[in-house]
Model the fold of this input.
Amino acid sequence: MRFEQWLSKIQLHQVKQNRLETWKKSDLQNIYQQLSKILIECKEGSLIYLALKDQRLLLLSILVCLDCNLHPIPEYEYSIDSDKDFIKNHLNPAYFLHYKNKRFVKSESKSGKIQWNAEPGIIFQTSGSSGIPKFVHQPLSHLLYNAQVAAERQAMDELTRALIPLTLSHTGGLNMQTLPALYSGGSIEFVDKRAPSQMHKRLFSGSITHAVLVPNHLRQALSAKKWLQEDFVNNLKVLTGSCPVDYHLFSEVNKRGGKLLSVYGLTEIGPFLSCQDKGIPPKKGQAVLGQFQKAYKYRIGSDQQIEVMGPTAGSYLSLVENNYIVTSCGEPWVKTGDLGIEVNGQLEFFGRINRQINFAGFKFYPEEVEACLLLLPEVHFCRVYGLADPVYNQLPAVDIVGDFKEVSVLKNHLKKHLHPLKVPKVWNIVEQIGLTSIDKVSGNF
Done:
């Protein structure tokens, strides 16, 4: 099928979603070439994994239009709304696909929606987070899908015999039905590839015996009482990714001897604490968190740290329990590590407590400087941070990408709007700055 024919098919499927308006033709041509290459290299009956980092490109509508009956296999019922939510809740939208309907059964639900049921007996092994993966088929009581699962062949063989623990890595999600089956085979450590290296060391040093990565879209499933009543949850250590975990889950896991580890701050689950993207301001004392758009109670602590009642959201490497404050009324509050103020009844975030720069006793937050620099159209990306200094404790520094000739122009701009001590003393003009999967400037150097 030629590109123009393919594009016309996509447009037919875009009537309801109306997304093509924002896409460049060059982007679509690039995706078409990638998909064509994958289809040629894959044999009939094999499974295809595809991840697109650009969230503007709606993967579902492209794939359903391809020849060869290539279909996405969503986690739940196949519908426009459900798949849109599925993509929205993933940092890297990903689908496992089946070529020519070989191992998935197409059926129609009572409501008339199409859904795909997977046959048991398949486990996937991928070659990594990028490139075309390879798949290994091994007997297993439940199918792992909608996830990127990496494991050694020997480990998968041992899992089927339930003899030794298994170590897996994944960046997507797991079907909740797989967890009991997996735990029956022994302890399993799920490692978040986005976690700091220290967390990897803690996992593999043996200090954590059981850990499960909790993807965004499984938060509600993990909170279900049925899951928590299973024996394998005892002494479980839950390693969460970029998702809020409600206090019910925290309490249930904690009272069974489990622990919640390494939970991200509020800024890691959404760019806004107040519901600015929908234009609906939250009520005073409520914060709308992340992709779930659910309002929770918040308050500002004496250290200007945002405290939230409900979901856990702590620092990267601190135990969540240490961040909980239980009042005399028994209300649980969590210190998020995010700093904020109330402006006209709305919560505004202005920094992370662990990113504060201390320049000769003068303390400020790099986000303020970054925001001021980004007001200039010639500045594309910037990252402000503190450099260790024996005299001043920290020197404000900035890495910057942009189209400008003189740094003095940028310095003068900052001096007009900020305290002079907030103007960086070290300027690094670079060609690029590392970005996260959601196009935020990475804090890693």
User: Anything to note?
Assistant: The longest strand covers residues 332-343. The CA atoms of residues 436 and 442 lie 5 Å apart.
